[in-house]
Design brief:
α2 crosses α8. This protein has a single domain, classed as NADH Oxidase (3-Layer(aba) Sandwich). The longest helix has 25 residues. It has ten helices and four strands, in the order ααβααβααααβαβα. Helix content is 50%, strand content 13%. The chain starts with a helix and ends in a 5-residue tail after the last helix. The relative contact order is 0.22. By secondary structure, the protein is α+β, with helices and mostly antiparallel strands. The radius of gyration is 19 Å and the shape is globular. It binds flavin mononucleotide. Flavin mononucleotide binds next to β3.
């Protein structure tokens, strides 16, 4: 157990937001499927899994995405694998949507009475408890769920020696316009929450990983 903990902490300490990857070193299919599988296994509020992962391996599309993605310039050009993490938009996440019905009925196979109870609960959660009352609030809430596979995939990659970079440095409207024009994403239903680049680092970061000390971020109430 001690060795396992050390290994996990080492992976977190070595994980850095990598700007540029070795272009001639690709992640194996097996390793990339492992990373995606960790993403797929991630939890989500009410278990709705309001996400989709689009792996962009097409050079022309990467070049188009680079223009509105200031935070992903070198990553788009050099990553072995480049993933768009999409979150479901308002209409998809509202009670009665085809998506929520499909998830409950076909994927989770909930008995009708259980589905009905869940939907009632979810309605209260949306309308009162969490104030998910307009499209933007619902999309932002779905994005929060997407950050779980986002983080899990980065950590899993780090644990098998694969580097990554989390990316929010892009103009969402422009990126979505490109994806819609290219016919890659139905942007009525899905929006871009974040991006993730994977590969093997070209060079070590010149800066050490910098974090607050534990006592500044943790407070114990006993
Ligand atoms: C949600 C999120 C968005 C980020 N967006 C970008 C980005 O667009 N481009 C980039 O190069 N780094 C980006 N970063 C990387 C952070 O700047 C980096 O994680 C942070 O400075 C800590 O450094 P470290 O990850 O190397 O420890 C992002 C990180 C997170 C978590």
């Amino acid at each position: 157990m001690k060795a396992k903990k050390e290994e996990i902490l080492k992976a977190h300490a070595c994980r850095r937001a990598i700007k540029e990857f070795k272009v001639d070193r690709k992640i194996s299919d097996e390793d990339f499927e492992f990373i995606l599988e960790v993403g797929r296994r991630s939890p989500s509020s009410f278990g709705w899994e309001p996400w989709k992962f689009v792996v962009v391996q097409n050079t022309e599309l990467r070049e188009k995405l680079a223009e509105p993605s200031w935070g992903a310039q070198k990553q788009l050009a050099s990553a072995s694998h480049f993933v768009l993490l999409l979150a479901r938009k308002g209409d998809e996440m509202r009670v009665g949507s085809d998506y929520l019905k499909y998830k409950s009925q076909e994927i989770d196979k909930l008995p009708a009475e259980v589905e009905e109870m869940k939907v009632e609960f979810f309605k209260g959660f949306m309308e009162k408890e969490f104030d998910l009352t307009d499209d933007r609030k619902i999309f932002d809430w779905a994005c929060k769920q997407v950050y779980l596979p986002f983080a899990n995939m980065m950590t899993a990659a780090a644990q098998i020696g694969i580097d990554s970079c989390p990316i929010e440095g892009f103009d969402r409207a422009s990126v979505e316009e490109i994806l819609a024009n290219e016919g890659v994403v139905d942007t009525e239903r899905l929006g871009v929450a974040a991006m993730l680049a994977f590969g093997y680092r070209k060079e070590e970061s010149p800066f050490p990983q910098s974090r607050f000390p534990m006592e500044e971020i943790v407070e114990w109430v006993k």
